[in-house]
Specification:
16 strands, 13 helices, single chain, binds zinc ion
C-alpha cells in the first residue's frame, strides 16, 4: 500500500531510562501520534486516542531492522526442503556442486528471492546487504535476476550489493568478470573469499580486490573463513591497505573473520584497536560452539560489527532464521548482556546501531525528518523485544506500510 501522508496513533516510543542509584532499572515509554509524509517522519505529537489515524495499538515502534549479510541470489528457499549434504565437506566441494546447480536455481531465482525478501520483511527487516555470485557459471545472471527481484520489491525493501567471486578469482577464471561487474553502478562492494586457501595467495587475491575497489570507487566485503596465520594475515592486509587508502575507511569489511576467534584476549585487543584505527568493520552471523567471535572486544574499541543471517536455507547451512531480533537475542545471551541497559543496547545489532535511546538514555530516534523506516513489535521496550524476540506486528518502509 502506498501512502503519501498519514498519521499513526497509540505509538509506543521510548523516552528515557529510569535509574535506581546508578543502575538502569526500567525503560520509560509514552504513547504518541506520529505523522508520516513522503517517506519521512513529519511530526511527533502527544497521543490523541481519538485522532483519525492508523491505530498502532500501543505497540513499540523501533527502527526497521537491517540484515547485513545475505545471499539472496542463491537461497534454496522456495524449493523442496533439503538439508546439507555430508558429501560436500570443503569449499571446493561446494564450488563443484554450485557449478552443477546454479543454472537450475537461476531458472526460478527471481520469484524465490522475492519470497525470501517477504520472509525477512515478516521479521521486520527492510534493508539487506546481499552478496551475489560472480563466477564463470553464473556470469552476470545472478546479478540480473537479483536486480529484477529487488526492482519488484523496491517500494518496500532496499538492498546494497556485494559482487562475490564465490568460486575464487583465480581458482576459476573470475577476475575478468569481476572487472566488468565492478563498473556497474548498482554494485557497492567488491567481495572475495578465502584468498589463501582458494586462490593460493593473499597478496595476489586481496591485491586484486583492493585495486578493483579503488579503481571503481567501491567498498570491500570479503568472506574469510580461514583460521590461523593466513586468516590473521588477510585481515592485516586489509587493515594496511585501508590505512594507505583512506577513501576505503568505513567501507572495508571482513565477513566472518573466524581467525579472530582464535586470538588470545591480548591479541584480540590489539587487532581490534588496529581495525578501529583503519575503519575496517567485521560482519558476523554470530557463530557459537567452537567459534566464538570477540564481539565485545571489537565493540569496546569502536569497530563497526555488522550482523547478518548469511545462510537461511541453502546448501551451506539451513539454520539462519532470517530474524534480526533473534540475532540480537543470541548476542545478548552469548555475551551476557542480560540487564535492562545491556539488552536495550543489544537492539543495535539488529538496526546497525540506530536505537531509540542513546547510551545515556537520551531519546535520539525517531526525530522529525528521519526516514519513515520502522517496525512495530508487541513489546513494552527494546530490552523486552530483544529478550523475548517479540513478534513483529507491522513494518513501514520509506513511508509505505508493508503490512
Ligand atoms: Zn556469506
Amino acid at each position: 500500500m502506498e501512502n503519501k501522508s498519514y498519521s499513526l496513533k497509540n505509538v509506543l516510543l521510548e523516552t528515557g531510562f529510569a535509574y535506581q542509584d546508578k543502575d538502569v532499572v526500567k525503560t520509560k515509554t509514552e504513547l504518541f501520534c506520529v505523522d508520516v509524509e513522503n517517506g519521512k517522519i513529519k511530526s511527533i505529537q502527544p497521543n490523541n486516542p481519538n485522532a483519525q489515524a492508523i491505530d498502532a495499538k500501543g505497540h513499540l515502534m523501533l527502527p526497521a531492522f537491517k540484515d547485513m549479510h545475505a545471499h539472496l541470489d542463491k537461497m534454496l528457499f522456495g524449493l523442496p526442503w533439503q538439508a546439507v549434504s555430508e558429501k560436500r565437506k570443503t569449499v571446493k566441494d561446494m564450488i563443484a556442486y554450485e557449478q552443477q546447480m546454479i543454472p537450475v536455481w537461476l531458472e526460478t531465482s527471481i520469484e524465490r528471492t522475492e519470497k525470501m525478501i517477504d520472509m525477512l520483511q515478516g521479521y521486520g527487516t527492510d534493508f539487506i546487504r546481499s552478496h551475489f555470485n560472480v563466477d564463470p557459471t553464473s556470469g552476470l545472471n545472478s546479478l540480473k535476476n537479483l536486480e529484477k527481484a529487488l526492482n519488484n520489491k523496491k517500494a518496500t525493501a532496499n538492498a546494497e550489493l556485494v559482487a562475490f567471486p564465490q568460486h575464487g578469482l583465480f581458482y576459476t577464471d573470475t577476475l575478468p568478470l569481476m572487472k566488468d561487474v565492478a563498473q556497474i553502478d548498482s554494485v557497492s562492494f567488491i567481495g572475495g573469499v578465502d584468498p589463501y586457501s582458494l586462490d593460493g595467495s593473499i597478496d595476489k587475491a586481496m591485491g586484486a580486490i583492493v585495486q578493483l575497489a579503488l579503481d571503481n570507487n567501491k567498498g570491500i566485503d570479503v568472506h574469510l573463513h580461514e583460521m590461523g596465520e593466513s586468516g590473521v594475515k588477510t585481515i592485516e592486509f586489509l587493515i594496511d591497505r585501508t590505512l594507505e587508502n583512506p577513501q576505503l575507511r568505513g567501507k572495508a569489511f571482513m565477513s566472518h573473520a573466524f581467525a579472530l576467534s582464535r586470538l588470545s584476549t591480548v591479541e584480540a585487543e590489539k587487532m581490534a584497536a588496529r581495525l578501529a584505527e583503519a575503519g575496517v568493520g567485521i560482519v558476523s552471523s554470530v557463530p557459537f560452539g567452537d567459534i566464538i567471535m570477540p564481539i565485545p572486544i571489537l565493540r569496546k574499541h569502536g569497530v563497526e560489527v555488522l550482523i547478518g543471517n548469511d545462510n537461511i536455507q541453502d546448501h551451506w547451512n539451513t539454520f539462519g532464521s532470517g530474524n534480526m531480533l533473534q540475532k540480537a537475542n543470541l548476542i545478548a545471551e552469548l555475551y551476557g548482556y542480560g540487564t535492562e541497559y545491556h539488552l536495550s543496547r543489544a537492539l543495535g545489532f539488529a538496526t546497525r546501531y540506530k536505537t531509540p535511546l542513546d547510551d545515556q538514555g537520551n531519546q535520539q530516534w525517531p526525530k522529525v525528518g528521519d526516514a519513515a523506516d520502522m517496525v512495530f513489535v508487541n513489546a513494552s521496550c527494546s530490552a523486552e523485544a530483544v529478550s523475548r524476540i517479540s513478534p513483529v506486528t507491522s513494518l513501514i518502509h520509506n513511508g509505505n506500510v508493508v503490512f
